[in-house]
């Protein structure tokens, strides 16, 4: 069994001292849930490529689904409490954090922000309770980083809409009760609510993944799906809709990856204290200590950045460029920490007996989804120079 990580100094700067009592309560509650309901089973789920759907109602009962939204059964908590939740979930596994963030920030948020009152009343209470699962259909097989070129389209037919196209790499897709699908229309890009079982709508799982295995990833296909007029989100037209949802979800990633990084660092630190080579603990070798010191430095900077952006968001001052910086910097830091931790563990680092290789593999997906590292680099480049490099 892996050694205990309780004594690893994961918060040397005492950053969590800056949390409010409510935020600390959220931290402790989610951490305890993860320890009891996720950690004993996650290696098996990852190896089998499964995720128990029954976790959703449990997460809903804790108030974690759409927790940063108000009304309609949502907890109405602040950005830092939501961030702490993402951190503690991803310390267990990125796939579990994806379940929470996709449900709350990509599926529930657009309904809450742009939906009609009828749409909100119909879906949000059930989604907050985990009784209904949502997914977010934006990425396409041939249009990932360039959503403005999406081929999925919807046209009016009498009072109805007819939706056709394909979406790819959709978290929760095949288990979703409602899909939030973005499509080109004569009026511009619009969001559509497509319930499970709608004629012409099919979802199939993507198999043979080596990353985010404890997460459902799907392809969605829409073959002239007929939708009523009230299936469209009335409150937004254009790319502002999906991009604002992605900004919400990216904020969760900024926090979440610090959990994965913390887990890898803590395991490496404890392993270094117990593993012997050449007649001594490997933690006594300078090269190992140097790795651990830099891992802790990078983790501390990522934790500080997450907290600062959380406070900015709570004050209503956060910008998309700041979120891009946070996503780019913290995911890169987490990947570097995971890779360094793997080297400290040696061959043990590539087995699922320890969480390091699982986190490392998962973070390769996190590096790509909701804006690749390259896209966020260019977003910052534009903020710096005033010149767009996209086109």
Task: Characterise the protein shown here.
The protein has 391 residues and is an alpha+beta fold. It folds into 3 domains: 15-128, Acyl-CoA dehydrogenase/oxidase, N-terminal domain (Butyryl-Coa Dehydrogenase, subunit A, domain 1), CATH 1.10.540.10; 134-231, Beta Barrel (Butyryl-CoA Dehydrogenase, subunit A, domain 2); 240-385, Butyryl-CoA Dehydrogenase, subunit A, domain 3 (Up-down Bundle). The protein has 11 helices and 11 strands. The protein has a 4-stranded antiparallel sheet with strand order 4-5-9-8, with helices on one face. Strands 3-6-7 form a 3-stranded mixed sheet, with helices on one face. A two-stranded antiparallel ribbon has the order 1-2. Helix 7 (240-274) packs antiparallel against helix 8. The longest helix is centred in the middle third of the chain and has 35 residues, at 240-274. The chain is globular and about 80 Å long. It starts with 20 loop residues before the first helix and ends in a 6-residue tail after the last helix.
Q: Brief overview, please?
A:
With 391 residues, this protein is an alpha+beta fold. It has helices at 21-37, 42-48, 55-61, 79-92, 94-114, 117-128, 240-274, 286-314, 320-345, 356-368, 373-385; strands at 70-71, 74-75, 134-137, 153-157, 160-171, 178-185, 188-195, 201-205, 217-227, 276-277, 280-281.
Please specify the SSE layout and strand pairing.
Layout: H1 21-37, H2 42-48, H3 55-61, E1 70-71, E2 74-75, H4 79-92, H5 94-114, H6 117-128, E3 134-137, E4 153-157, E5 160-171, E6 178-185, E7 188-195, E8 201-205, E9 217-227, H7 240-274, E10 276-277, E11 280-281, H8 286-314, H9 320-345, H10 356-368, H11 373-385
Parallel strand pairs: 3-6
Antiparallel strand pairs: 1-2, 4-5, 5-9, 6-7, 8-9, 10-11
